[in-house]
Amino acid sequence: MASLKNYNMKIMWETAVVFCLCSLSLVSSHSRKFTTPTVTRLTDQFSKIAIENGFSKRFGAPNILVNGSLAKLTLDKSSGAGLVSKNNYHYGFFSARLKLPAGFASGVVVAFYLSNAENYPKNHDEIDIELLGRSRRDDWVIQTNVYANGSSRTGREEKFYFWFDPTQFFHDYTLIWNSHHIVFLVDNIPVREFPNRGAFTSAYPSKPMSLYVTVWDGSDWATHGGKYPVNYKYGPFAASVADVKLSGCSVSNGTSTGSCTKSGGSISSLDPVDGQDFATLSKNQIAAMDWARRKLMFYSYCNDKKRYKVMPAEC
Predict the structure, then answer these.
(1) pLDDT single digits (tens) 289-304
(2) Backbone phi, then psi, for 105, in 5-degree steps?
């Protein structure tokens, strides 16, 4: 009887070890404990808008549900879904709180980005935050990118791990675009700055753009270069959008509207969202960005010598 008991205990112990090893193989970046930097919450300076007031349904209308300042965009076998701003903008502050699809979502892309590809198909500009779906072993990834004047062959991607689970709660994703710089922020922490100076200027977006929020099938490239496509057995994949904040110089038919100026204020037609908080990064923001890039960035185009025999000028 004692030997049988010992045998059962051995089996239980081995099972527990195997379970633990399997669990360890699936540990994601956000399971590690990070002490996040303290930064100014720029998003608190702006008011949210009603989705219907600021956006139109760009594609996949049956897969879009809107309720005030909330929206749900769903990817299924029939279609993805996308919203596009009713106005084009030349510089501004653009933010939304997003909650990503839970579970196995390889190949799924949730994107929050500015683009003018529809108006300038041959020389478009683009500023991207693309959230790339998880595989069985790896979690969601943040990808940032910048295009200018149709330079899509020169990808300027940088990729980051999350420091939290983006599927459990809503988190802030923000783009600042003005005459000084482009800043990509997640929960108000800058992860990347693209300055409008020096060698960066030739690759700096300069034409009015629309804001898009989309979910779509990126099977051919999104997860490990297309190694793991979307598996619709785990779908549908729903991304939730809340608290969109849009403050910029709206442009209609190439002409700036009244939203570009404020009476008695210092806001100019070039930088509708003005002030030191938006012209430069503070010491705390620089330290926070350094933290994000040291701890969480795992790819930068400027380090990819296999991809570029001649590196982009700003590198």
Answers:
(1) 999 999 999 999 999 9
(2) -135, 40
Please give the Cα distance from 84 to 245 (Å, whole number): 14
Dihedral of CA atoms 66, 67, 70, 74 in degrees, nearest 10, equals: -30
47-82 pLDDT per residue, tens = 999 999 999 999 999 999 999 999 999 999 999 999
| 130 in active site | yes
Residue 95: in which H helix or E strand, if any?
strand 88-99
**Nearest residue to 241 (alpha-carbon basis) of 60, 55, 36, 45:** 55
**CB 151 within 8 Å of CB 249:** no
Contact 133, 101 (CB under 8 A): yes
Mean pLDDT of 4-11: 42
**Amino acid at residue number 160:** F
Locate 142 and state its tokens. Answer: 């943040």
pLDDT score of 120 more than 70: yes
Neighbours of 38 (CB within 10 A): 11
Mind listing the pLDDT tens digit for each residue in 154-175? 789 999 999 999 999 999 999 9
User: For this structure, is 158 an active site residue?
Assistant: no
Q: Which member of 14, 126, 157, 193 is catalytic?
A: 126
Domains in the chain and their CATH numbers? 46-250+270-303 (2.60.120.200)
Read off φ and ψ for residue 29, nearest 5 degrees. -60, -35
Q: Are strands 297-300 and 210-217 parallel, antiparallel or unpaired?
A: unpaired
Report how far residue 242's alpha carbon sits from residue 189's, in angstroms, rounded to the nearest whole number: 19
Catalytic residue selected from 52, 118, 130, 193:
130
Cα separation, 223 vs 225, whole angstroms? 5
